[in-house]
Amino acid sequence: MRTEDLLAAIATGLWRWDNASGRVTLDAEAARLLGLPAEPVELTEAAVRSRFHPVDFAEINGVVQLAVSEGTLAEARLRIVDERGRVLRIVRTRSRPRIVNGDFDLVGTLQEVPEPQPGTSAAHTPITGDWRRSREAFLLDAGRALAEARSTAEVLRVAAGLSMPGFMPDGLAVFGIEGDRLSVIGHHGHRPGDERPFSGMTLETEYPAAEVIRTGRAIYLPTPEEYRRRYPSTWPLAARFRRTSWAFLPLVNAGRTIGAWMAGFAQPVAFTPDERSVLTTVARMLAQALARAGVQESQHELAVGLQRSMMPTVQPDIPGMTVAARYVPTGGGLEVGGDWYDMIPLPSGRIALVIGDVQGHDVRAAGLMGQLRIALRAYASEGHHPDAVLSRASRFLAGINETELRGHGEDQRFATCLYVEVDPATGLLDIARAGHPDPAIRMADGTMLVRPTAGGLPLGIDPDTDYPTTRLVLEPGETMLVCTDGLIETGGHDLETGWARLRDIFEGHDAGAEETGGESLERLADTLVQAVHGPSSHHTTGPLVDRREDDIAVLLLSRHGGSCGVGTGGRLAQQPVRRTVFSVAQAEPERIAEARRQLRAVLHDWADPDQVDSAVLMVSEMVTNVLMHTDGDALLVAEISGERGGRRIRVDVADGSDELPHRRRPGELASSGRGLVLMELLAAAWGVDPRGDGKSTWFELYEDAGAVAEPSGPVSSGPEEPVPESAA
Segment Disordered: which positions (predicted)? Predict the structure, then answer.
């Protein structure tokens, strides 16, 4: 008997569907099943498509792709409709697909499906629109939940909670690969320890998960008998769980098998094409989710390791001082970037505080940061002064740039840095700066000043750059803040507005009466970070936060003595003297403008803005005269004392010249000679005090504007130094 006659006898038709040519060939029985005359025919794809329910036909491509990936038959149930769209019958198609240049070629059978009998499970009934809709909704929910999972544990929890339409596994296991052996990444529906016999199996073991990983093809075992027949050696391991059906699917990501997924069922499952399609889709999403989680966990582990190796723990036991530090990474992939801080014991018994920022937020920036930090530590430990430490570090980074530029074509990277050598006994600070933001000092009365310091180019740009040193004194009760620009400029701020924001936080910090100096400083560090970046999410060296634009590093140094804590409203019970010292060298006339800014910062809460303008004008005159008519530098000292509303400011400008100024009468067109006239008009009190090594010109202003005194102190009759118009 011919094959065609045999198939016709069992009501089975043959068809061939060539997707490339768009032609479908049907034998007589296949044509009859599609509602056509019972004779062989060749039709267009469109003509055949009109005989299938549109919802069912849309699934053909997915079924074919599934069969190709598994190396199995393409099976589907299809509803046959007439010209009016009424369902005539349901047929089952089984075909062997081939993919050629992206098009498929099907050769298979069509057979009518009998009406379902009472008691048949939903998994075995013909496909309906409701089942498809529930399946699509399930896959959308599963995809969304797996995409949001951030860790392997979360992925496994999501997988365990998936409610598949029509069939639900009661046990899951995810297998990974460690060398040539299986590992159990996680499981659900089993007791702790149940995974031990399966973990460590070689990939050559006759076990379904091992075979799936070897071949990359899914294995479906609908009955215990099938499992026992195909895998007799490992069947006893599975038998004790008393399940009736199993599906083992490969976890494939980027074309590579990374593991296997086992779904075990307590109820029999036939694994129809639609059920296999659901399982295959879930396996693909699960593989992608596990791969993403693995990458994130690897990056986090790398970040933690980098942080532990690169972010030192500050010393809490500096005599007479307290230090607090924070490092907050950016929102990029790695939890470490180019910012760093360090604290280095020096051979002299002093302490070096270092803070810096390597350009970039990538792995290379983190690597350069580590190299630069080690180099700075080495140079500092050799006993070099701050300027020499930065000069050597700049040459070191420039050498790395030159090597990488020749070898790999990498772009040149630079780094900003602030190096502070601290004498804990005296509070003396020797500061060298390489393109980094200046330090800020919160004085004993709670006022914050940004202290300008001399500096050079960022490290790595010019290996011959000099880095002058600035000397400051951290008085008892004062706190120094040094940070990277991420703390200042986050949120669209520039340096000016960023420092203004930090001033409000710094001055408004309210140390509780129960807090020690160290506790207060730690809380201040948290407050600064949280105010700029939002609430903390977890801690590393300090709090990591959720909204991050740039890396930040922060160091706070507080000197004991006086009153370190600020009371309500930033005021102390007894207001100490607010004092600042600022020097202007002969070779740095541009610092006159900085002296004016520094005085405005000291007077930022002064009641009368006109008095502030007057003080700034007089300081400009005094410092300019020193630079123009002496051979030495100008040293400015400003002190504010008294209670708010009745305070006094005294400003002294000292120089090394013994010649005293005298009053002049400049004409209308004169460009100088008005300095003492301005002092007499604007100051509440003023004078010139001779000193052993020069003189000091001073003035006073009173906040209540009522306590006006006569000018005091000797005023010389010598010639007054000319004052250019630009000085005013």
Answer: 708-728
